[in-house]
Specification:
Layout: H1 3-26, E1 50-52, H2 67-71, E2 77-83, E3 90-98, H3 107-111, E4 119-121, E5 136-137, H4 139-153, H5 159-168
Antiparallel strand pairs: 1-4, 2-3, 3-5
Bound molecules: iron/sulfur cluster (2 copies).
One iron/sulfur cluster binds next to helix 2.
């Protein structure tokens, strides 16, 4: 067989293989979504944007222990806490998470010792910024994320699990 005939045979075989895969997928259910009209079903432990939880009066659950900042492998959490009358532990006066380097590992929420968790990863995945500064979640944004999570899903991240753990302890 000449080189040309071999190339033609190889091309025809590749073409038929491609067509066969197309035909197979033609009869399978779609795996793509018509976003944003259609929304994905998220895994129960999906890790989206961070949020801070608070009491109904706005008092943050955070006790300023700093564990989240210490455990963060990307060192993107900046926080400052101080003593405040009537608040258990210390109160976070500054709290920022820089999403530019965050890998969404969820360790910060895992180590948070309060019940419900003061810091959670919500189910929110829609977030856009036009520059790097816009990807820094300030304390106010984090608080709003936590509030929206309750509004949309009726709970915040691992709140239920945290409460159960606390009860079991
Ligand atoms: S999700 Fe991981 S990388 Fe992101 S802030 Fe939390 S601990 Fe750090
Ligand atoms: S968010 Fe949780 S881990 Fe982080 S400082 Fe507050 S209480 Fe500690």
């Amino acid at each position: 067989m000449t080189a040309l005939a071999r190339e033609i045979a190889y091309g025809a075989k590749s073409l038929l293989q491609g067509l066969w895969i197309t035909i197979l997928h033609f009869f399978r259910p779609n795996t793509t979504l018509q976003y944003p009209r259609e929304r994905p079903v998220l895994a129960p432990r999906y890790r989206g944007l961070h949020g801070l939880t608070a009491a109904p009066d706005g008092d943050l659950t955070c006790i300023g222990c700093g564990s989240c900042a210490k455990v963060c492998p990307d060192q993107v959490i900046t926080m400052k806490a101080e003593k405040r009358e009537g608040h258990k532990g210390r109160y976070p006066v500054e709290f920022e998470i820089d999403l530019n380097s965050c890998c969404f590992c969820g360790l910060c929420a895992e180590v948070c010792p309060t019940a419900p968790k003061a810091l959670v990863l919500t189910k929110e995945y829609e977030f856009v910024a036009s520059d790097r500064a816009g990807l820094v979640l300030t304390r106010e944004i984090l608080l709003e994320n936590g509030r929206l999570e309750v509004e949309k899903h009726g709970y915040v991240g691992l709140k239920e699990e945290g409460a159960e753990e606390a009860q079991a302890a």
